[in-house]
Amino acid sequence: QVQLVESGGGLVQPGGSLRLSCVASGFTFSSYAMNWVRQTLGKGLEWVSTINGGGGSTTYANSVKGRFTVSRDNAKNTVYLQMNSLKPEDTAVYHCTRTGYRGQGTQVTVSS
Q1: What pLDDT digit, counting tens, does each position of 73-108 carry?
Q2: d(Cα 40, Cα 70) in Å, to the nearest integer?
């Protein structure tokens, strides 16, 4: 069965950095684009970034462009989200997704 397990969240000060990881299993990882989305109580679900199966094509929401970088290691069935220059408005539960599936998420809190 498909499983997506995120990790790497935590509490960080504004301007800080975090790297999220998502380990996938149960499907041919390299055949699927992977996404990062985030969820807050106030804004609901917001798409953050997508990376294609080969890793050569990435897209970002305007709100994170230039600060976040998505990457993947198909040998490790893992997708990453490097988050720099974090802002309080980046506070959310971050989920990795592929078509039809979403992980349980990891909490990111940006606060001084």
Answers
A1: 999 999 999 999 999 999 999 999 999 999 999 999
A2: 20
- DSSP secondary structure of 63-90: TTTTTEEEEEETTTTEEEEEE-S--GGG
Q: Report which of 110, 111, 108 is spatially closest to residue 19, judged by C-alpha positions.
A: 108
Other CB atoms within a 10 A radius of the CB of residue 87 amount to 14
What would the pLDDT profile of 19-66 be if each residue is shown by its tens digit?
A: 999 999 999 999 999 999 999 988 889 999 999 999 999 999 999 999
pLDDT at residue 93, rounded to an integer:
98
Instruction: Map tokens 């970034």 to a residue.
Output: 49
DSSP string of 6-37?
Answer: EE--EEE-TT--EEEEEEEESS-GGGS-EEEE
Question: Please, which residues bridge with residue 20 across strands?
Answer: 81
